[in-house]
């Protein structure tokens, strides 16, 4: 199970407007798998339910998970996260390169 550090936009808004003295905006969210769209549903300790979209590319998140696994003492999990991150990076490069060559999205997805 991966832990993503997401945030609650409602708590963050309240903290930015000084509506509360202190707000814990981080929401540690266990995920069985990463979202392909980057969209996640967050429920914070205050019970706010929000949708959060991460702009990080998938390989960045997987790489960070590999680092966390090393720090936490799980080298086997780190290797699989780094391996998945490298694979996603290759895919990212491939999609960018084909888009640069004006290959259509449909053809890229089909390949
Ligand atoms: Zn909240």
Structure characterization notes:
- It is a single chain.
- The protein is α+β, with helices and mostly antiparallel strands and 111 residues long.
- It contains four helices and four strands.
- The chain has two domains: 1-55, no CATH class; 57-111, no CATH class.
- The protein is 50% helix and 20% strand.
- The strands form two sheets. Strands 1-2 form a two-stranded antiparallel ribbon. A two-stranded antiparallel ribbon has the order 3-4.
- The mean pLDDT is 89.
- Bound molecules: zinc ion.
- Zinc ion is lined by residues 8, 10-11, 44, 46, 48.
Keyphrases for this structure?
two-stranded antiparallel sheet; 2 domains; 111 residues; 20% strand; single chain; alpha+beta; flat; 4 helices; two-stranded antiparallel ribbon; 50% helix; binds zinc ion
Which helices and strands, and how do they pair?
Elements: E1 2-7, H1 9-16, E2 26-31, E3 39-43, E4 49-53, H2 58-72, H3 75-100, H4 105-110
Antiparallel strand pairs: 1-2, 3-4
Helix pairs in contact: 2-3
Bound molecules: zinc ion.
Short description:
The chain has helices at residues 9-16, 58-72, 75-100, 105-110; strands spanning 2-7, 26-31, 39-43, 49-53.
The termini sit apart by 30 Å
Strand content: 15-25%
| Outline type | flat
Question: Which hetero compounds are present in the coordinates?
Answer: zinc ion
Oligomer type:
single chain
| SSE series | EHEEEHHH
Tell me how many strands there are.
4
Mean pLDDT: 89
Q: What is the helical fraction, as a range of percent?
A: 40-55%
Strand order, main sheet: write it out.
1-2
How many alpha or pi helices? Answer: 4
Structural class estimated from helices and strands? alpha+beta
Radius of gyration over all CA atoms, rounded: 18 Å
- Regions with pLDDT < 50 over 5+ consecutive residues? none
Return the domain count.
Answer: 2
């Amino acid at each position: 199970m991966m832990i993503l550090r997401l945030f609650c936009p409602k708590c963050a808004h309240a903290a930015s407007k000084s509506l509360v003295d202190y707000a814990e905006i981080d929401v540690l969210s266990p995920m069985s798998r990463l979202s392909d769209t980057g969209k996640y549903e967050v429920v914070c300790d205050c019970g706010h339910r929000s949708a959060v979209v991460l702009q990080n590319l998938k390989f960045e998140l997987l790489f960070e998970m590999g680092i966390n696994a090393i720090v936490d003492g799980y080298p086997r999990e780190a290797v699989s996260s780094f391996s998945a991150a490298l694979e996603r990076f290759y895919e990212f490069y491939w999609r960018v390169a084909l888009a640069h060559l004006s290959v259509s999205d449909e053809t890229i997805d089909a390949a």
